[in-house]
Structure formats: C-alpha cells, structure tokens
Design a protein that fits this description.
With 233 residues, this protein is α/β, with parallel strands linked by helices. The protein is built from eight helices and twelve strands. It has two domains: 118 residues, 3-Layer(aba) Sandwich (Rossmann fold); 101 residues, Winged helix-like DNA-binding domain superfamily/Winged helix DNA-binding domain (Arc Repressor Mutant, subunit A, Orthogonal Bundle). It comes from Fodinicola feengrottensis.
Length: 233
C-alpha cells in the first residue's frame, strides 16, 4: 500500500488536482479544506505526510503546523505564495520539512513528497546509518530515529534529525550551505535559507543558549561546524 498523504487546501480545484496526481503516483490521499478539519483528521488517523497550504480559513497553515509540531514529527510540506520569502521562512521556522511555491507543478509536488518520505524511511548517509551517534549527553538512535538530550527525548522533524545526524557524523568539519543542501536534502540547487532556518531551529533544541551556541557554530562567510562537547561515536 502506498503512503497516506493528507492534502489541506481551501481551493477545491487545487485539492482535486493534487488528489488526482498523487493517487496516480500510488499514494493514498485524503483531503481537507480548513485547519480545524485537518487537525481532527490527523488526530483520528495520522497520515504519513501532510501537504499544508499556508493560507487557510480559520486556523491558518502556520498555526496548524505549530499545533502539529507540539505533538508529532509527521513530515509537512508547506504550500506558499510565489516569491514570498518571508512566508517560506516562517513555514520552515514553524516546523515544515519542505515547501512548494504556488503556482506549482503537480509533478514537482509528487517529487518533493517522494523525497521527504524517502528521508523519513532512510536517513542521510544510509550506508552508515545503523546504530547510534553520540556527543556527551546527546545521543541519536539512527535506526529508531530518536534523539535524546540529557535524558529528554527531542521532538525533531525529518530534516532536523537528518541535519543533526550529519553534523554528528562529521564533527569539527565546516560545511557550506550548498553542501548541506546536497548531502542532507538531496538537492543539487535550492533556497539556501532553508539550511539557515533549520540550523536555527536545531540550536533552539540542542543548545543551552541558542544565541551563543557551543555545539553548532557559525563559521562566518563559510558555513557551519559541529563542535563536540563530549565523546562522539
């Protein structure tokens, strides 16, 4: 059986087009037209992935994503307006794993969904993904895709987990944003602000003081480096 995808958009035409293309691609598709109905559907029977429009009646997409992220790491692809970089960044900061700008190609959306679902099932560096990686009080179980910091389990999105796993596997090395896009997202090109936002979100979850990070450092003009705080395996 194909993965279950919940499509949330108040535009009936957009919903119909997405449902048709996704069904043809082998996915099981459910559709909802507003945020409250989407949250109710997710609570009743969590899907494998949510395609979520930013502009919804009642609860908008950002609030739906916030409430979802408070309880779940289900992958979310946000639909945003063309050229609205602020909307894209807000969506990523709220917890979206990826975004597609409207108007969009249904084929592109199908490809993005497939990419995110593959990342959920197969972590980055899949040939080295079994077992755990650790640094001091931070441990990642790569098989179970669980992250624990000081005895507390972290709620990480698919991209956050993959990005943190990549950093932990390459401690002390500086990585440019285009490299991270390629290695973690699997993109040969794309909006590099995606990396910036995900690094910021990771700092909020793993740093004692995100404004003055000790683990995840910025190397100005170059990229980012993970600085071990303990024993890394």
């Amino acid at each position: 059986m194909g993965a279950r995808v919940l499509v949330v958009d108040d535009d009936l035409t957009v919903r119909d087009v997405m449902e048709r293309y996704l069904t043809h691609a082998g996915y099981r598709v459910e559709v909802r037209g507003d945020g409250e109905a989407a949250l109710a559907a997710i609570q009743a029977d969590p899907p494998d992935l949510v395609v979520l429009d930013l502009m919804l009646p009642g609860l908008d997409g950002l609030e739906v994503c916030r409430q979802l992220r408070a309880k779940s790491s289900i992958p979310v692809i946000m639909l945003t307006a063309l050229g609205e970089e602020e909307d894209r960044v807000l969506g990523l900061e709220t917890g979206a794993d990826d975004y597609v700008t409207k108007p969009f190609s249904p084929r592109e959306l199908v490809l993005r969904i497939g990419s995110v679902l593959r990342r959920t099932a197969v972590p980055a560096d899949a040939d080295k993904a079994s077992g755990t990686v650790a640094d001091g009080d931070l441990t990642l179980d790569l098989d179970a895709r669980r992250a624990v910091l000081a005895g507390r389990e972290l709620v990480l999105t698919t991209r956050e987990f993959d990005l943190l796993a990549f950093f932990l596997k390459h401690p002390g090395q500086v990585h440019r944003r285009p490299e991270l896009l390629e290695q973690v997202w699997g993109w040969s090109f794309g909006d590099q602000s995606t990396v910036t936002v995900h690094v910021r979100r990771l700092r909020e979850k793993i740093e004692t003081d995100p404004v003055h990070p000790r683990r995840l450092s910025t190397v100005w003009g170059v990229g980012y480096r993970y600085d071990p705080q303990g024993t890394t395996s």
